[in-house]
């Protein structure tokens, strides 16, 4: 299955402009990190992403949840129907922010652990 990340970037950029959403606003509304939103909008890092990322962006852009997945795979996006779009639970973006923070802390802890291990090896 060929993935067209340029088409996804074009769709996201056009829709964000139509809705007058800035990158930061789209990130906050979707719960997707600002860095990932930038990568997707610029189509500079083209790699498989968690399906929930495209779903969250689709919903934040007032599309059917599978809209961007369809664009990515070259299919016709499903029509948006009010009953198919789940009601946004306000806790979800907050939980996503907490998860991102924990991942960042985990990465920092790993870096510190590696530095301590290196220092310990030098002493021995």
User: In the residues, how many domains can be counted?
Assistant: 2
- The coarse silhouette is elongated
Distance between the termini: 52 Å
Main pleated sheet: none
Describe this structure in words.
The protein is mainly α. The chain folds into two domains: 1-86, Orthogonal Bundle (434 Repressor (Amino-terminal Domain)), CATH 1.10.260; 89-124. The chain is built from six helices and no strands. α2 (23-30) crosses α3. The longest helix has 33 residues, at 91-123. The chain is elongated and about 65 Å long. The mean pLDDT is 86.
Features:
elongated, 124 residues, 434 Repressor (Amino-terminal Domain), mainly alpha
At a glance:
The protein is mostly helical and 124 residues long. The protein has helices at residues 5-18, 23-30, 34-42, 51-60, 67-72, 91-123.
Write the layout of secondary structure elements.
Blueprint: H1 5-18, H2 23-30, H3 34-42, H4 51-60, H5 67-72, H6 91-123
């Amino acid at each position: 299955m060929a993935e067209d990340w340029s088409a996804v970037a074009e769709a996201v950029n056009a829709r964000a402009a139509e809705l007058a959403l800035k990158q930061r606003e789209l990130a906050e509304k979707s719960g997707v990190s600002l860095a990932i939103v930038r990568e997707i909008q610029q189509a500079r890092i083209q790699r498989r992403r968690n399906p929930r990322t495209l779903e969250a962006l689709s919903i934040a852009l007032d599309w059917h949840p599978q809209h961007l997945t369809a664009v990515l795979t070259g299919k016709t996006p499903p029509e948006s129907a009010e009953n198919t779009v789940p009601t946004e639970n306000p806790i979800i973006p907050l939980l996503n922010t907490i998860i991102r923070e924990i991942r960042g802390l985990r990465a920092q802890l790993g870096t510190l652990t590696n530095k301590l291990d290196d220092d310990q090896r030098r002493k021995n």
